[in-house]
Amino acid sequence: MSGRWSLRRRLGLWLALSVAALWLSAATVAGLVLRHEIDEVFDSALQEVAQRVLPLAYSELLAREDGAGTHHMPPVGPHREFITYVVRDAQGRVLLQSSDAEQMAIPAGLAPGFHTTPRLRTYTEAAVRGTVIVTTAEELDHRAAAVWRAVMALIWPLVALVPIALAGVWLTLRLTLKPVLAFRHAIAARGRGNLAPVPEQGLPEEMAPVAGAVNALMERLRGALEAERGFAANSAHELRTPIAAALAQTQRLVAELPEGPAQERARTIAGALRRLSRLSEKLLQLAKAEGAGLLAEAPAPLAPVLRHVIADIDRRTDRAGDIDLSITAEGGPVSDLDPDAFAVLARNLIENALKHGAPDTPVRVRLTADRLEITNHGAVVPAERMAQLLRPFERGPTGAEGSGLGLAIAAAICRGAGLALEIASPIPGATEGFSAVVRFPEARS
């Protein structure tokens, strides 16, 4: 798997992380604001409790008969006191306190107003010329817990928000980038001899110039390839007629000349013209292999084409007896490879095997549902030469005549039609020989 990340994944991840970061930042700011507001609310509550307790405490003290001693206000019911109070006189003696005041250990001698200790937040207010002093207190942990619970109430939805945001972002990006993905697939489909313009409909504004540039590039490439192929095809075609005429005249000259050096030279010229004729035919095949039109409109069986190729080879060379043909299924594989292109492919591979194989040994041709396999016996081709054999005018270690175009033509057809050509030497499982395997994909509907 490639280490690159798709644009959808990058945008989805960054957008989700951005949403999460913004949510956390907003929760943090909200927590700070909430802390300030909670402090104001609880400070107001401390002040209000003190102001309400003060007249009630004064009335309670006046109503007491002994006027001395600490009086605990009993709780109305079981509950937790978040705000406690204590009433003292000018000498700091406790006159009245709430039920939980002793546990709070509210300090004495505090000046009127708000004070903060390491553990408490207090408010003190005095009356009757400083003889009655009320101090209310609240634990700071209570305020922190309230702020924390409020902040967590904001953060917890983030746990559900992140997956939802990821799914929403992924779906949005998938729908948004659908034209871009279609554009990518359209470009990928242009690798098999198809250099037609890529559709630009539906592309975002940012991608439209890219599509225009790609189409312009393919137009220039198509023009260059057509010029190159046209030159090769026209050159080979124009050479066929004069070569055929020269060969006919040379053969006539061979028949008319008496035995001797002159007739031998004429035979040499005729042989050279025959080789030149075969080379021009191979150049025509190479031009077709490197051009378009390698795929048929509808899939068709390949076995009849292969039998016709072998019959034609027998008619020309009388070597059908050296071919061991095997077709595993009736009609052979069904493929959308153009029959003419398959005929050129099979002919070049079989002729190459007949030409470079060991004498008096059969060439095995196997056509199955997924491959065409051709093997011949002979010397092993060095590993460093194998890849070079697929290039034009490259030949292996053989003394047989040839142009070095057979495998190059087969490779060009396979490359243009989306087939896989595998060559090996020695034959897999043997110690010598050469094999060429063409693998067919499933027929495209």
Automatic annotation (TrEMBL):
Task: Classify the protein's membrane topology as the record does.
Answer: Multi-pass membrane protein
Q: Where is the HAMP domain?
A: 174-226
**Where is it located?**
Membrane
List the CDD domains hit by this protein, alphabetically: HATPase, HisKA
Q: Which reactions does this protein catalyse?
A: ATP + protein L-histidine = ADP + protein N-phospho-L-histidine
List, alphabetically, the InterPro entries matched: HAMP_dom, HATPase_C_sf, HATPase_dom, His_kinase_dom, HisK_dim/P_dom, HisK_dim/P_sf, TCS_sensor_his_kinase
Q: What is this protein called?
A: histidine kinase
- Please provide, in alphabetical order, the Gene Ontology terms of the cellular component aspect for this entry: plasma membrane
Q: Which residues form the Histidine kinase domain?
A: 234-444
Q: Which UniProt keywords apply?
A: ATP-binding, Kinase, Membrane, Nucleotide-binding, Phosphoprotein, Transferase, Transmembrane, Transmembrane helix, Two-component regulatory system
The UniProt entry, under SUPFAM superfamilies, shows: ATPase domain of HSP90 chaperone/DNA topoisomerase II/histidine kinase, Homodimeric domain of signal transducing histidine kinase
